[in-house]
Design a protein that fits this description.
The complex is a heterodimer of chains A (436) and B (586).
Chain A: H1 19-30, H2 57-68, H3 71-74, E1 88-91, E2 94-97, H4 114-123, H5 138-141, H6 146-156, H7 180-188, H8 202-214, H9 218-221, E3 239-241, E4 244-246, H10 262-271, H11 282-289, H12 296-307, H13 322-335, H14 337-340, H15 366-374, E5 376-377, E6 389-390, H16 399-409, H17 422-434
Antiparallel strand pairs in A: 1-2, 3-4, 5-6
Helix pairs in contact in A: 1-7, 2-6, 4-6, 8-12, 10-12, 13-16, 15-17, 16-17
Chain B: E1 3-4, E2 8-13, H1 17-28, E3 33-36, H2 44-47, H3 56-61, E4 74-77, E5 85-86, H4 120-128, H5 146-160, E6 168-169, E7 172-173, H6 197-209, E8 214-215, E9 225-226, E10 232-233, H7 255-258, H8 260-263, E11 269-272, E12 276-282, E13 289-295, E14 301-311, H9 315-324, E15 348-355, E16 370-373, E17 392-397, H10 417-427, E18 431-438, E19 447-455, E20 461-466, H11 471-489, E21 495-499, E22 542-544, H12 559-578
Parallel strand pairs in B: 1-14, 2-3, 2-14, 3-11, 4-20, 14-22
Antiparallel strand pairs in B: 4-5, 6-7, 8-16, 9-10, 12-13, 13-14, 15-18, 15-21, 16-17, 17-18, 19-20
Helix pairs in contact in B: 1-12, 5-12, 6-11
């Protein structure tokens, strides 16, 4: 899979490049609407607060938070020094290069004060006062408590400074004008620290804080509008991310987490797999670099929060043509049944089941198609080091064959999801080929 | 002048099974380990992926993942009166090149040797008298006992996820298992593989004759398995492409599917590929190894200093390196003195092809899917009336039904053309073959030395192999073949074709790939290269792994014993690291 990741602006794919024009138009029409600013009231919830006190507690807490936020992934170029930035982040609007967050005074954040850093995390404005692009997920990070943000800074300050000049983003006019982001913020961004819901348990609130804050889950799992913005009040019912489709985290039994137990969620985030599925695509990297390091209580809190999300109305899916299913079934036996077994039951612990899989039945089949084209590897985690891999079939199967196969898998053994046609596969094949 | 690399604590020559185990154990003990592999990096995906690995022509016929004889070979002769010539094609054994070594392309037959195998001289003399052993047979005890190795066999079996049926747990015989095996502390980690039609046929016939058949121990996972290192294996799909192929399903145990996911994450482990080690370097005293010299892919000579050197290459390569490095006294068959190259041994096989009416679907197979009897292995029977030492198992293996090399045709079938096709059509689904797999003892005239004439690409003398089957082995193999035929005849409606093994030994055809000896272990430095812990008698910071340390060959496939010995030696290495020096005083 593509190594590059998009955190916030990853709507659609190139198929949505109309968004560029729309963003500009909307921005002009709607200029800066004002929003009430929250005074940055300290939250009752702190990540990693269970760590023992002591001279290292703030730094080690910061390290935990940095992992929880998956900061290293975006701020590290392939084979580059961790946190030195320069990673190309593809967005539907152009390529953004991540910044250097090592404490180098010239090119990193060495001269940043705590206040500078807090403003960047909370408002999306850098030390020089320029607006950051929401590829940096400040719309989520704004919910962090001030203490947590300062712990993150305390940890980053301990890194070895690396000189790495921030590369110019490859964005077309007018998007290269950072001031435009003031308008975007006016339209789509509400700053404000997470406010616990007193009607919910402390565990639920911690989960919500993690999911909606540092974890920025809806950056991938949420729907994006044409300007690449996510409505923070919407539940994460699935969204496009890095040429894949991040399935719904809401309560749908077919394509969401409705039938998962909290233990399933904890195991998935902690190890990269469970008896229902295994992480693939960009999520594999998230598990490897971020969620496997979360404490069990935090994973349980996330699970409790996600399980509280209501199921959206299950939209009707058209019935699939029998000939397509017959062709797909034959392709399945020849190419897939060896590992995933004839009834799609998989081998628990080794190869993920495809039967009753929410990822397989997601609203978009892009993730499934991408795995068939390019293969996938289960995350290598401390608990599950193996990283069992599947080869890609891009060289073996035509677009039409992959479409039939995908449609079959999405409608076999009780699965039910929309059909895929050869054009969908062709588009994704092209996108993946061009992707860094 | 060789370029010098920064020193490491331990350098491993080769990166197959033994190196992976040693690396895992010693890095756990905190030392810095480097493995040097002459072949390429390999992993299940993409190298063995199921979309291309089931290609018999590429892998089995053209030997894609083996050593290429055009770069590296050995010379061969049957006896000292002949002139040895270099082999341009290796058939009789198949050294690998590449990470995982021969552990990538083995079948997964994972046996324990019998308790008497380790004490063969003592045991044979006690039971049959000294005169029973032919004068030129170098029969030797191993210096280690089955009981000492038992926990290490256990570790290897649980590492690999061996599927099988125990026959003797803690001294209690278990129905359905091998009643002759040594006592084991617990059963196999996984139940036996699903039975194929042909193994069911064999099982019934063997029982009818009065034998006690059991499922062969298979390092092909019968269920999804997570080993003690946390590495996950997938369930075997019986695709029938194990031997000579890498497993695309994470089902056959190999370093890749059992150890490497954990080992490669460690900061104190490194490996380099395309590094061909040509010398073990010693200091001026010759008593201490200082590291190794290797040739990289560009032909550069590079010196790798190390505190400790472990030879983990294929059996003959370990011996070749010792000879090239002038470590230990080379064996001289004329005076019967010296040790390096002494006691080369092999194995002896034969078969009985069975043609019957029942459909067997042979293409559904697995590398170690077989049913065996052990009545005639080791000293499980009275050798007195038969006048030979050794024995072997009789098994029906259903490793697969590959079209080119895995089919059985009646003796009178045409070798080509329409008649051949007709015979294939009539027999492919219904024929099977019973194999015998027998021990080969070590002899004064079977050995390895440096060839006086032929040299490799680096200008080093090739290794020379002098070997032939001896009367003892041919007699033993004939005895086993008769027993196999007895079982074949008990299959209803069967006609059989007995394929007895005849001398002289030919190195060209594939028969079994189990070389042993040349750097054998033992209690006496006059007859062994390494002590009972596999530590060199001459150079105590040099260790030799693998089947080159077997003093003679037993009736079983060797990998299980290689694995157990490696764990046994790793434990000794950990003691050595705390207090370096010879672990045994001669």
């Amino acid at each position: 899979m593509s190594a590059a990741r998009t955190r916030s602006l990853q709507a659609g794919t190139l198929r949505r490049n109309l968004a560029l024009a729309a963003l500009f138009l909307l921005a002009l029409l709607c200029a800066a609407c004002s929003h009430d600013r929250d005074a940055g009231a300290p939250s009752a919830i702190k990540l990693g607060e269970r760590m023992s006190a002591g001279p290292w507690s703030e730094i080690s807490r910061g390290r935990y938070l940095v992992r929880a936020g998956d900061c290293e992934a975006c701020h590290t170029a392939p084979n580059g020094t961790p946190f030195a930035g320069d990673r190309a982040i593809p967005t539907p609007f152009g390529t953004i290069y991540s910044s250097n967050i090592t404490p180098d005074p010239e090119t990193g954040i060495g001269r940043w004060t705590d206040e500078d850093f807090y403003r960047a995390m909370h408002e999306g404005i850098d030390r020089e006062g320029s607006h950051l692009y929401p590829a940096f997920p400040y719309p989520w990070y704004t919910r962090l408590s001030r203490d947590d943000v300062l712990s993150i800074k305390a940890y980053l300050d301990t890194l070895t400074p690396v000189r790495q000049i921030h590369r110019r983003n490859a964005l077309p006019w007018p998007l290269d004008q950072r001031a435009l982001m003031a308008m975007w913020n006016g339209m789509y961004f509400d700053d404000g620290t997470y406010q616990p819901d007193p009607k919910r348990s402390a565990q639920w609130n911690r989960g919500a804080y993690l999911v909606k804050g540092l974890g920025h889950c809806s950056a991938c799992h949420g729907d994006k509008n044409l300007a690449g913005a996510t409505d923070m009040d919407d539940p994460p019912t699935g969204g496009y991310a890095e040429n894949a489709y991040a399935p719904s985290l809401a309560g749908g039994a077919r394509d969401g987490l409705g039938s998962w137990t909290t233990q399933d969620i904890v195991q998935y985030l902690g190890t990269g797999r469970n008896s229902r599925t295994s992480a693939a695509g960009p999520m594999a990297e998230v598990v490897e670099q971020s969620t496997q390091y979360l404490s069990k209580p935090d994973l349980e809190a996330i699970a409790v929060y996600l399980k509280s999300l209501p199921a959206p109305k299950d939209t009707s899916v058209a019935k699939v043509d029998k000939n397509t299913l017959d062709r797909g079934a034959a392709l399945y036996v020849d190419n897939c049944a060896g590992c995933h077994l004839k009834q799609g039951q998989g081998e628990i612990g080794a190869f993920p089941p495809l039967r009753q899989s929410s990822a397989v039945q997601a609203a978009s089949a892009d993730t499934l198609i991408g795995v068939i084209l390019d293969g996938a590897r289960i995350p290598r985690t401390a608990a599950e080091p193996t990283g069992l891999a599947m080869q890609g079939f891009a060289d073996h199967l035509s677009d039409a064959q992959i479409a039939d196969l995908t449609t079959y898998i999405r409608n076999a053994w009780g699965n039910h999801a929309g059909a895929v046609d050869a054009d969908d596969v062709e588009d994704l094949r092209e996108t993946l080929r061009e992707s860094p | 002048m060789a370029r010098r690399m920064p020193p490491v604590d331990v350098v491993l020559v080769g990166f197959g099974w033994t190196a992976s185990i040693i690396a895992q154990e010693l890095t756990d003990a905190g030392v810095q380990v480097l493995a040097l592999e002459r072949g390429a990096w390999r992993d299940t995906v993409p190298d063995f992926a199921t979309d291309h690995i089931q290609d018999e022509l590429r892998y089995a016929v053209r030997k894609q993942i083996f050593e290429s004889p055009e770069r590296e070979s050995l010379t061969f002769r049957n006896n000292a009166s002949q002139t040895a010539l270099p082999m341009r094609h290796l058939g009789s054994f198949l050294p690998a090149a590449g990470v995982g070594g021969a552990g990538v392309h083995w079948n997964g037959q994972c046996w324990r040797f019998l308790p008497q195998d380790f004490l063969i001289r003592t045991h044979t003399e006690q039971r049959y008298g000294k005169g029973f052993i032919p004068a030129d047979m170098n029969l030797q005890d191993w210096g280690v006992t089955y009981e000492e190795l038992e926990p290490h066999y256990d570790r290897f079996e649980y590492l690999c996820g061996v599927s099988g049926q125990a026959g003797n747990v803690g001294g209690q015989l278990v129905a359905g298992g091998n009643p002759f095996e040594g006592a084991r502390q617990r059963g196999y980690p996984l139940p036996p593989l699903e039975r194929s039609a042909s193994t069911v046929l064999f099982d019934k016939a063997a029982r009818d004759v009065g034998f006690k058949p059991f499922p062969c121990p298979a390092a092909n996972a019968s269920r999804p398995y997570r080993n003690p290192l946390g590495v996950q294996m997938g369930q075997c799909t019986y695709c029938g492409y194990c031997e000579w192929f890498g497993c695309g399903n994470y089902s056959k145990a190999s370093p890749q599917t059992t150890i490497l996911p954990v080992l490669l994450k460690k900061d104190n482990f490194h490996f380099r590929t395309h590094c061909n080690v040509t010398r073990v370097n010693t200091d001026s005293s010759g008593k201490r190894a200082t590291g190794v010299t290797y040739v990289d892919v560009e032909g550069n000579q590079i010196e790798q200093p190390a505190q400790m050197v472990v030879l983990c290459a294929f059996a003959q390569h370990n011996v070749h390196l010792l000879l090239l490095s002038k470590i230990g006294q080379p064996y001289d068959p004329v005076s019967n003195t010296g040790v390096v190259g002494r006691n080369y041994a092999y194995q002896i096989t034969s078969s009985v092809d069975v043609f019957q009416k029942e459909r067997l679907n042979p293409f559904m197979g697995a590398g170690a899917l077989g049913q065996a009897i052990d009545e005639f292995n080791g000293d499980n029977f009275d050798h007195g009336p038969h006048g030979f030492v050794g024995g072997g198992y009789i098994a029906l293996w259903n490793t697969g039904g590959r079209p080119i090399l895995q089919h059985y045709l009646p003796q009178n079938a045409p070798k080509w053309g329409a008649g051949w096709k007709k015979a294939m059509h009539e027999n492919y689904l219904t024929a099977c073959s019973i194999a015998t797999h027998g021990s080969v003892m070590s002899y004064r005239n079977s050995y390895l030395d440096l060839d006086p004439t032929w040299r490799d690409v680096y200008g080093n003398p090739l290794l020379r192999l002098t070997f032939d089957f001896q009367p003892n082995e041919l007699k033993m193999s004939g005895f086993l073949t008769d027993k196999a035929a007895q079982i074949g005849r008990a299959i209803p409606g069967a006609s059989i074709h007995e394929k007895k093994r005849q001398g002289p030994y030919s190195i060209v055809p594939y028969q079994t790939t189990h070389n042993t000896g040349g750097a054998v272990m033992g209690d006496d430095p006059k007859t062994s290269v390494v002590n009972r812990y596999l530590q060199s008698w001459d150079v105590p910071n040099l260790w030799v792994m693998g089947a080159s340390v077997f003093p003679q060959n037993a009736g079983y496939n060797p990998t299980g014993t290689v694995g157990a010995l490696t764990y046994w030696s790793a434990e000794a290495m950990k003691r050595y690291l705390k207090n370096p020096g010879p672990l045994v005083t001669a």
